[in-house]
Amino acid sequence: MFVLDASGVVVHAGEEFAAHLGTDTAALRGRPFSDLLADGDWPEVREAAAAVRAARGWESRRCHCRLSGVGGGAAGAVAVEIEFAPSPGVEVGSGGAGDGSGAGDGSGDADRGGDSDATGAGRVVGAVCRELPEPAAARLHTERDRFDHLFDLVDDAVIEFEIVGVEPIIRTVNPGFEAVFGYGAAEVRGESLNDFIVPPNADDEAVDFDQRTADGKANHAIVTRQTAWGRREFLYRGIPYSRGDGRRYGFSIYSDITGQRRAREHLQVLQRVLRHNLRNEMNVVLGMAEEIREATADSRVDHAAARIAEHTKTLLRVSEKARTAAAVLDDQRPDEVVDATATVRAVVESRRTRYPAATFDLDLPPSLPVSVGPKLAQALANVVENALEHTPEDVTVRIEAAACENDATLRISDDGDGIPEIEWAAVFGDEDITQLSHGSGLGLWVVKWVVESAGGRVDYDRRDGWSTVQLALPLADEARC
Asked: Helix (H, G, I), strand (E, B), or coil: what is residue 44?
């Protein structure tokens, strides 16, 4: 048994504890407890002692560490489990400044035997409960070292908390939290997380999350939270966990997505305004061009007006493609299972009458369930339209589909002139997208976005007079080998 004061200095040590360290009680009295631990173990011990001081009732707290004797280090360290409890005769919950943050710096009053709090406030009693088997101890510390490394270096804000009553009480935060939210670790430790980061209009939401954590359930949501510099939007993940002491703990992870969401909103507004104005103004230009052609007898004027009408119609088609692309990309519904075979047949049948001279050659399985969702129809329509619109009228469009392990492969081929290099290089290769002109290739971009958002891949190949766009799509679970 041993007693620590508020600054983490040993004020009393029993003979059995001293023997555990291979020394005597006199050598331990007045020493910072951190001197007796292997390197890196003090933070967990300090946390356990601080939790006992901060408790609102008589509570104990256990932790794991490696006792190495006076001088610290890892050589010859013995892995143990220690239990801390309030010192008898000291009012619990009255630790005051005794959060243990000053321990380990030798700041105890050595002239008074290290008893830096003569009144006894903030003292805790510790005792070695058991030694840990060496393999288990080594594994424990390896896992803890890995966690500490991740906890400290991850850029996202991470908070470890304990549910006390109905409040998430902060036990520790990582540097990412300090950088993202602007509150220091010393400022928030031991306080309610909700008091710092939850806006008043989100109190009910936060209470629901806390209750789910207390019930052992995870949380996942887009939330607005208060920082030292104002409100921002976050992707929030709440993860409950247990230390085996009957208490309820959790981690909150906040990823700042304010910039992403604002950028998305800005783009949506700009493209909708641009598309609307473009369509309206181009319709006016087209109408005026047709009037000029009807009113003029000059062949040069008629030719110029016809060119104006032709290019205006091209811009209107681009505007319509942009509208379709925006609708596809704005569809945030999760992927669902659709039958690729049925989707291909529906896309082809709707185009047979529009392109009567074209030949469609289909080689499809009876059914091919894939995890893409309804947007697959739009992607396939764009590939087929591309094969039909930029080729001779008597083009042959060949569509093959097959299942292969965890993927479904759809190959759409045509015997036309192929996709212009400047387009396929930008969509399927490394060409700068600024090389695209007049929105050409926009349909192929929609195909790429739809397929890749489902975890698939799009490839293009040109050989032996045939152009092939290949879609690799994730098979639905029930269709996998």
From this structure: helix
For the stretch 55-82, pLDDT in tens is 766 778 888 888 886 655 555 678 888 9
Instruction: Give 389's contacts (C-beta < 8 A, 6+ positions apart).
Output: none
SS3 82: strand
The pLDDT of 256-275, averaged and rounded, is: 75
Three-state secondary structure along the chain? CEEECCCCEEEEECHHHHHHCCCCHHHHCCCEHHHHECCCCHHHHHHHHHHHHHCCCCCCEEEEEEECCCCCCCCCCEEEEEEEEECCCCCCCCCCCCCCCCCCCCCCCHHHCCCCCCCCCCCEEEEEEEECCHHHHHHHHHHHHHHHHHHHHCCCEEEEEEEECCEEEEEEECHHHHHHHCCCHHHHCCCEHHHHHCCHHHHHHHHHHHHHHHCCCCEEEEEEEEECCEEEEEEEEEEEECCCCCCEEEEEEEEECHHHHHHHHHHHHHHHHHHHHHHHHHHHHHHHHHHHHHHCCCHHHHHHHHHHHHHHHHHHHHHHHHHHHHHHHHCCCCCCEEEHHHHHHHHHHHHHCCCCCCEEEEECCCCCEEECCCHHHHHHHHHHHHHHHCCCCCCEEEEEEEEECCEEEEEEEECCCCCCHHHHHHHHCCCCHHHCCCCCCHHHHHHHHHHHHCCCEEEEEEECCEEEEEEEEEECHHHCC
**What average pLDDT does this structure show over 308-328?**
79
Residue 46: Cβ-neighbour burial (10 angstroms; 0-12, 13-18, 19+): buried
- Neighbour tally for 178: CB within 10 Å: 17
CA distance 479 to 22: 66
At 371-385, the pLDDT tens digits run: 887 788 888 988 888
Say how far apart CA 403 and CA 101 lie, in whole Å: 61
Kindly give, in sequence order, each residue whose CB lies less than 8 Å from that of residue 263, ignoring residues fewer than 6 positions away.
none
- In this structure, the dihedral spanned by the alpha carbons of residues 305, 307, 313 and 316, taken in order and rounded to 10 degrees, is -90
Whole-number Å distance between alpha carbons of 179 and 185: 11
How many beta carbons lie within 10 A of that of residue 23, not counting itself? 16
What pLDDT, on the 0 to 100 scale, is given for residue 3?
92
Cα–Cα nearest to 122, from 103, 102, 94: 94
Task: Say how many residues make up the chain.
Answer: 481
